[in-house]
Design a protein that fits this description.
246 residues, alpha+beta, 7 strands
Length: 246
């Protein structure tokens, strides 16, 4: 299959968006929020019932040429026979449930995973993580589907994850990782980065042994509104550092 044939469903997608999606993967890999696994998607800009996601490939290696198109049921669009991610249903079902979401990150970052398997709730401990207002809910796949490999392998799994996410910005996945969403790919990357940061900081605060003063909901929402207006600033920095490998 030729590259032009593979990318025909992307003919109406701005090249800048494809570049940003590839860059998002590489940024998160550079900062170890993603490793050989995990993925980032964006909603199709002219087909809101479709989304864009790389072929199954390690995030650090992804380029714009790796991007594929999927319909809302997470079927490949067009004559693209490259291997897709198993867990693409995460993306399709969240986009179906959340018209406000235009980008999604799925990560297994190490500071977050302990909160997926603990009774300790992940809550905003610093102003940069105000988007965690109210705490991050935890999706436990076995509650609805019994014993599985914990992967989101079909639309039903993805639908239940989307229900747990609800109107929040982040949901944890027991023994697995998390999803972070945003109105832009820059916002979703920011939230994934600071979900990991907040998780590490919260564990350090717990280790101190004293009472922890979390941001209350009003503080978190106010802080999030302020920081959300500035995400292009860290995006520019992260993009340059990922490109330089520094």
């Amino acid at each position: 299959m030729s590259l032009s044939s593979a990318n025909r469903p992307l003919s109406d997608v701005p090249s800048a968006l494809l570049d940003d999606l590839a860059t998002a993967n590489r940024i998160l890999a550079h900062y170890e929020v993603l490793d050989g696994y995990g993925h980032v998607s964006v909603r199709h800009p002219s087909r809101p019932d479709h989304y864009l996601l790389s072929r199954s490939r390690a995030p650090e290696l992804i380029t714009a040429d790796d991007i594929m198109a999927f319909d809302q049921d997470s079927n490949v669009v067009g004559n693209d026979d490259r291997k897709p991610y198993i867990e693409r249903f995460i993306h399709g079902e969240i986009y179906r449930a959340r018209p406000d979401v235009h980008a999604i990150v799925h990560s297994h970052s190490p500071s977050v995973v302990p909160f997926t398997a603990s009774s300790v709730q992940l809550r905003p401990i610093c102003h940069m993580a105000g988007f965690l207002s109210g705490g991050a809910p935890v999706f436990d796949i076995r509650t609805r589907f019994g014993t599985t490999d914990l992967l989101i392998r079909n639309c039903d799994h993805g639908e239940e994850l989307a229900k747990t996410l609800g109107t929040r910005n982040v949901a944890l996945m027991r023994g697995h990782g998390f999803v972070a969403v945003g109105a832009t790919v820059q916002m979703a990357v920011y939230r994934a980065m600071y979900t990991e940061t907040n998780s590490a900081l919260q564990q350090k605060a717990i280790a101190l042994g004293g009472d922890i003063i979390f941001l209350d909901d009003a503080e978190a929402e106010t802080a999030d509104a302020a920081v959300s207006a500035t995400v292009e600033r860290p995006w520019e920095l992260w993009k340059r550092k990922a490109a330089l490998g520094s």
